[in-house]
Structure formats: C-alpha cells, structure tokens
Design a protein that fits this description.
single chain; mainly beta; 9-stranded antiparallel β-sheet; 8-stranded antiparallel β-sheet; 8% helix
C-alpha cells in the first residue's frame, strides 16, 4: 500500500514521503463505526495539542464500576487518546511528559477509558477528534456514544517521521466498551509510552500490564479486578500489532470485565454501500514547517499532490493523469485535475457554482462543493491510496472530507463525504453523514466536468432514475439551492460515475432511498447520516438494516467484491 505526499515542492515531497509510511497499518477492524459524527462542540480539540473538553451523558446511561453516568454527569475527553468519567483527569501530561502512565491510570481521581493514551497532537500534526451518538432501538434514549481519535503524534514532527492514528472507543448502554483501531502509522522516532486499557482510578491497586491481544483471544476474565491495561514501552514497534483489532470489555458481574476480541451482537455501522473506512492521513500530517498548507486549519485553501507520489494513473475525459500531473484538493469539497482551480470562492461566496464548474481551466470532481470550514467549524480532509490487486501500482485514491460548514460554526452542521478515484476512470462519491440546518445558506453542487469552457447541460436529479446515461455529455451535476429545505437527498448512499465509452457517464445511486438499486453494485438501502449530531439520538429501521446488510455486504470490507465485479463487467 502506497502513501501520500503533500507538496510545497510537489516532486521533492513525493520522493521524500513515498518511503516514510512503511510502518503504517490500514485495515478495518470487525467493529468500527464509520459515521464519525461532528468535531467536539465548544472547545474543539483540532487546534489544541494538550487539551480536554467536557460533554454530558444526556439521555445515555452508562454503568461503570458500580456507578451509572447519565444526565449532567461529565464525560471528559483528552486530546491524548483517553476519556474520563464524572470529571476531568487532565490531559494525561506530567512535567511535559504525555506518555501513557499506569500510575496515572489507577491513581487519578476519575475513571479512565484509554483506547490510545500517548502524546497525540491534533493541533500541529493535523486531524481531529469526533463525537457521535446512536439510538440503535426504538426507545427514547441514546444507546451508544462513539468517540474517534483521528490525529497525528506530537513526537513525529519532522518530514521523514510521519505518524497518524485512527482509534475509536464506543460506550454501550449495558456497560460494554469497544476499542477499535483503523489505521496506525508509527516510526522509530516515537519514543513515548502507550497505554491501552481501563480503570476506575481513585487510587485502586495496579495489577500490572498484560498482553491484551493474547488475553482477548482467550477470552480473559479479570474476576474482581476492574483495572485492565497494557503498557507499550515505548509504543514503537509494539503498537503496530493493534492493527485492525477490537478489544471488547464486558462487565462480568463480579466487579471486573471479560476481555474478548469479538462479540455476538456488535453494533452495526449504517454506511453507504461503497465506503472506505481507512480514510488515511490528515492533510496536515507532514510536520509544522508545512502547517500553512494543511487544510485542517484553513477555511478556504487548496493543497496539491502529484499522481506519481500516489503511484496512480487516472483517465478522465480522454486524458490520463499520472506521474508529475497535479491533483488539487479544495477545503470546500472538490478536487481539480492537472492544476489549481482555487478554493471555489468568488466575491466571498463559496457556494457550488455551475458556471465555475464548466468555465474554470481544469477538470473538477465535486462530491460536495459548498462553503465548508475545517478551521472554525472543526474537522479535516484525509487522503489515502490503495493497491487492491497484485500489481505494483495503486488502484484507488480516496479523499475524505470530514468537516463542518462555514455557516454553522456552532457544530450544528457537519459533513462526512468521500470521493474515490479508480484506475479505470470510475468515480464514486459516498455520503456517510450530512447534517444541515436552515442556517446553511450556501448552494451545494455535486458532479463532474472537464471544465475549460465546457457546455453547461443543466442540473440533473440523481435520484430520478435507477441510472442515468449522459451519452456524449462529460458534464453531469446536481445543484442543491440553499433556498430549498435541507438536507440534500444523497445521504446514506453513493453517486457512481462509470465511463460509458462515448465521452460521458452512466450514473447510478446505490443506497439512496428513492433511487433505483444497481444490482451490479450491491443495490440500495437507506441509512448513512443517522446521528451525525452531538445532541440527538438516531433510530434505525430494522427492515432497512437487513436490506442494507444483504444488498451491501460486498462493500463493507474494502469493497473488493465491487472491484472484482466491475472488472468482470468491463471484460464482458
């Protein structure tokens, strides 16, 4: 699997970064909530190296070590990879050392749940911390709280030592705790200790470190012991073993926990039929010298990559982009091929604009062009590439926009949107959580165009038919006017553009309620976008759940079935 580079000098960084991520692990654990939700409200941790933020449990009731946390009880989140129950244990740092610390785990006053306690840095190193809640049944209470740490490490600030993490903790209403690891990149520059585990704190005895992986395979019953942890000292290289694992802590009725790697009734992530959960590294993950280029702290900005750094070739409208050709990413929800079309703003208006779509110089691919804001509203843009077969080149580039809207800086709006570029020219948009309110005043545009004064064919309703064949027309888009009621009707599904051999596309919309199912891509199913808010619960219709599981099963694991079927159809 190759890695990405962002460019101050595109070619130079490509050469340097192509070999820096060899330690990275990208594989989805069996249990992973792909709907990250919103960045943390109030004091967003995306611009804080060492900080905490307080939430409350609200309608969620979570039992832990004889106490039940609910209502106004505090759920405190540290930027260094752990949460505290009932109060603030601080950032996990002592005398400027933010290593995972067994003495702090058992000795600090409040219970601590630590999926990845180490010196993380969502400020300088990019990334963010996301929060979501879910109601998985029909009662009025929240059943799950999900917190995702998607960030870099403080120690990895030099260009040749890029470290990044996607780790998640889920709290279930019956007291179960799920840790998940969906992308770990570390190098030998990482010298701090890592602690993974749970404890009621308050001065309880320290039972000592155990091998969590070996114990979870038993499974392991801690009896009356409520503290279970492993200390990786230092984190490198041991943390690599966490890879695509889950650790599930289930109360055993004796004061301790049963630790296992699987569970009989895991929570299901309702996501589009095609969705890549291994979202990659933050756009700001190459060190502080290049912070000004990072899209996590820029409202309106672009970032350039080269196709050669990604070892990828992509055909679009008769041109194949590869080598030193440029791929530009805008913080406002689109990418440009071959050059920079800017951030998509004109006269301080960053709305999606059909005239700019067809009139700008370079081709544009637009999963969600609107006034997004990964700065004040929090969030980040992530990039990854994948080799899905045995050849030496990448087969897919995946760019994920996980951010808020400029119009909704109080976190009431959020977007989790993805574009996948495949080596045969297929383009896949995925919508895995879009929350809007009436305060969102920018138009939204979704589509593709070769630009360079192309003809404007007008807006197309992607939901109108099972498939749309544009014939010889290479520009296909839908414009959602801000004056129309939110939300847009693509959430929970995909918009797939397959080259039709005539210069245009066959467009299908698997997974979108109201649109026809494409049997070659796994069909429909509603869902995605549930619960992408910090304060409301979400409900899942079990009929839609079963339908999505059956229709989209081929896509829930790296969508390799999709790739195989797609190549078979092309060969036929």
């Amino acid at each position: 699997m190759t890695r990405i580079a962002r460019t101050f000098s595109s070619v130079l960084l490509a050469l340097l970064l192509a070999s820096t991520h060899s330690a990275a692990v990208f594989a989805q654990p069996p249990i992973w909530e792909a709907q990250l939700g919103t960045t943390l409200p109030g004091q967003a941790l995306d611009t804080v190296d060492n900080g905490t933020v307080d939430l409350t449990f609200g309608t969620m009731s979570f039992p832990f070590n004889g106490a039940t946390y609910t209502g106004a009880d505090i759920l405190n989140i540290s930027s260094n990879g752990f949460i505290s129950l009932g109060g603030d244990n601080g950032t996990g740092c002592f005398n400027f050392d933010c290593s995972g610390d067994p003495a702090g785990l058992v000795g600090d006053p409040f219970p601590r749940i630590a999926p990845f306690w180490i010196d993380l840095d969502p400020g300088n190193q990019g990334g963010d911390i996301y929060y979501n809640t879910f109601n998985d049944d029909n009662d009025p209470e929240i059943d799950r709280i999900v917190i995702t740490f998607s960030t870099g490490f403080n120690e990895c600030t030099d260009l040749v030592s890029v470290c990044f993490l996607h780790a998640q903790v889920q709290l279930l209403e019956d007291g179960r705790i799920i840790f998940g690891y969906n992308g770990i990149g570390i190098t030998d520059s990482l010298t701090t200790d890592l602690l993974v585990g749970i404890s009621p704190g308050g001065g309880v005895p320290d039972p000592g470190s155990i091998d969590l992986i070996a114990a979870s395979q038993l499974p392991f019953d801690s009896g009356t012991e409520p503290t279970i942890y492993e200390l990786f000292s230092p984190a490198y290289p041991g943390a690599e073993d966490l890879g695509d694992l889950n650790f599930i802590f289930r109360p055993n009725g004796s004061g301790g926990f049963i630790l296992s790697e699987t569970m009989l009734d895991p929570p299901v992530s309702m996501q589009p039929p095609v969705w890549e959960s291994g979202i990659g590294v933050p756009s700001n993950a190459v060190g502080p010298f290049f912070n000004l280029l990072g899209l996590d702290d820029a409202d309106d900005a672009t970032m350039g990559l080269t196709f050669g750094a990604l070892e990828f070739s992509f055909p679009f409208n008769g041109v194949t982009y590869t080598g030193n050709d440029l791929l530009f990413i805008s913080s406002n929800g689109f990418i440009s091929l071959g050059g920079d079309n800017g951030s998509g703003c004109f006269d301080n208006d960053c709305s999606g604009d059909p005239q700019q779509l067809v009139g700008e110089l370079f081709p544009r691919i637009v999963p969600l062009w609107t006034d997004l804001d990964p700065e004040a509203a929090g969030g980040e843009i992530y990039v990854n590439s994948f080799n899905d077969d045995a050849d030496p080149e990448s087969d897919r580039i995946v760019i994920t926009f996980a951010t808020g809207f400029f119009d909704c800086i109080n976190e009431e709006c959020s977007a989790l949107v993805q574009v996948q570029l495949e080596e045969d020219g297929t383009i896949i948009f995925g919508y895995n959580g879009i929350r809007q309110t009436n305060s969102q005043t920018s138009d939204i545009l979704v589509g593709v165009s070769p630009a360079n004064s192309a003809t404007d064919p007008g807006s197309t309703n992607f939901n109108a038919a099972p498939s749309i064949n544009s014939g010889t027309e290479p520009t296909v888009y839908e414009l959602f006017l801000a004056a129309s009621p939110p939300p847009i009707d693509l959430d929970g599904g995909n918009v797939v553009f397959e080259p039709n051999g005539q210069g245009g596309y066959v467009v299908t919309t698997p997974g979108i309620p109201g649109a026809g199912a494409d049997p070659g891509r796994g069909g429909g199913g509603g869902g995605g976008g549930f619960g992408c808010t910090t304060g409301t619960a979400a409900s899942v219709d079990p009929i839609w759940l079963v339908f999505l599981l059956v229709a989209g099963v081929g896509y829930l694991r790296r969508h390799k079935v999709h790739l195989t079927e797609h190549k078979m159809r092309k060969a036929a």
